[in-house]
TrEMBL record:
This is 3-methyladenine DNA glycosylase AlkD. It comes from the Bacteria. Gene3D superfamilies: 1.25.10.90. The lineage of its organism: Bacteria, Bacillati, Actinomycetota, Actinomycetes, Micrococcales. It comes from Leifsonia shinshuensis.
Amino acid sequence: MTTEQTADAVMAALAAVADPADAVFLQRFFKTGPGEYGEGDVFIGVRVPQTRAVAKRFAGLPLPEVRALLDSPVHEYRLAGLIVLNAAFARASGIRTRDDAERQRLADFYLQAVRDGRVNNWDLVDASAEYVLGAFLLVRPRGVLDELAASPVLWERRVAVLSTFAFLKAGDASTTLELGSRLLDDPEDLMHKAVGWMLRETGKRVDRALLLGFLDEHAARMPRTMLAYATEHLDAATRAAYRAVPRRAAAAPRSRGGLG
């Protein structure tokens, strides 16, 4: 029997495997309390492997139905929508199935979802940015990432940085390093982790010398979490040397405008 390709069917399938105890745990894990980064996010208690398994059954979900999932206040519904979107973009990027018009449509759809606040927790960003926006921009101008990196919205800035993972996997660290230097003074710990993670991947996947050059220039200003993430794969002596660099005061905040 053919699976009904609707948002309601996805929601029903996820609700069928939801666990109230997991919902309580996930609400705490993703910091949904007052004043926390995920304030107001709603969980029904579906773990990521289950969400992926459900999303796989709805590979043909039309974009309006994906949008309905992204419009939901329920976190797992939004994640399922993004996983379906990833799969659609991958199909449109295949050697035999490449469709540049569809790739454009899907990337535009994703960017609008980001700007509308639908991709609004770190796991949602990390599960989607590189696979849609990053993959789309791989051989295109990347000015939109400058705009996102300049946003006052945490999740837009994280999308900018995590999109560069696609570039790193293709051997290009230029945008990662550029955004990393711009975001040294970002106030959010989740951004320190994101930038540090991508810097670490620069050293692992592209060129260790590029990472070391960045650290030589910026280690004294890097937030400690960013520095820890960036250096955690280095040998103990090198890691300790960078982490022992005397701290410098942060530069005066720059305007968030004019980067695009």
